[in-house]
Amino acid sequence: MPKLKVKKFRGSRTCGGGSHKKRRGAGHRGGRGNAGVHKHKYLKFIKLEKLGLYEFGKHGFTRPKVVVEELVREKNLRERLKSLRDEGKLDENTYRFLYSKAELNVGDLSSIVEKLVALGIAEKREEKFFVDLGFLGYSKLLGAGEVDKPIEVKVEHATPKAIEKLKAAGGGVV
């Protein structure tokens, strides 16, 4: 087995580290880590930055995917409602009511379904109302509130409570 390098230095004062003052801490190397890159290590910083090898400072964070999707969905909903208002398909009161809701509850839908029929967004066939929430920009129907009219709703997602309340009133989810 070859002789270890450390063995060579045993007995010497500095063990190959140069002057004994150099091993006292991080002072000899100008601080630890990125310390001094805008002061005494500036040239090193500039040279390495040009090569793309050196980054300094905070670089933000990545938002969770769920949060990003939710923000995009809300933005699309609001843009859709604005476009419907500009086309004249939504009156100002209904627009404000829907704009304030990021997600629609069955109780809210029940309260405005007749207004939606009058505006031509929903249909009434015999006794049932038919509403396409995807057309309005909503992708989810929640179960809060009371349903007193039979409403058939076309929506991407609906909570079990919302489906139960709609079926109890004589409607359903498509």
Brief overview, please?
It contains seven helices and seven strands, in the order ααααβαββαβββαβ. It has helices at 5-9, 42-50, 65-87, 92-99, 106-119, 133-136, 160-168; strands at 104-105, 123-125, 128-132, 140-142, 151-154, 157-158, 172-173.
Describe the secondary structure blueprint for this structure:
Layout: H1 5-9, H2 42-50, H3 65-87, H4 92-99, E1 104-105, H5 106-119, E2 123-125, E3 128-132, H6 133-136, E4 140-142, E5 151-154, E6 157-158, H7 160-168, E7 172-173
Parallel strand pairs: 1-4, 3-5, 4-6, 5-7
Antiparallel strand pairs: 2-3
Structure description:
This protein is an alpha/beta fold and 174 residues long. The chain has a domain at 65-173: Ribosomal Protein L15, Chain: K, domain 2, CATH 3.100.10.10. Helices cover 41% and strands 12% of the residues. The chain has helices at residues 5-9, 42-50, 65-87, 92-99, 106-119, 133-136, 160-168; strands at residues 104-105, 123-125, 128-132, 140-142, 151-154, 157-158, 172-173. The strands form two sheets. Strands 2-3-5-7 form a four-stranded mixed sheet. It has a three-stranded parallel sheet with strand order 1-4-6. It is elongated. It starts with a helix and ends with a strand. The relative contact order is 0.08. The mean pLDDT is 91.
Brief descriptors of the model:
elongated; Ribosomal Protein L15, Chain: K, domain 2; 12% strand; alpha/beta; 4-stranded mixed β-sheet; 7 strands; 174 residues; single chain; 3-stranded parallel β-sheet
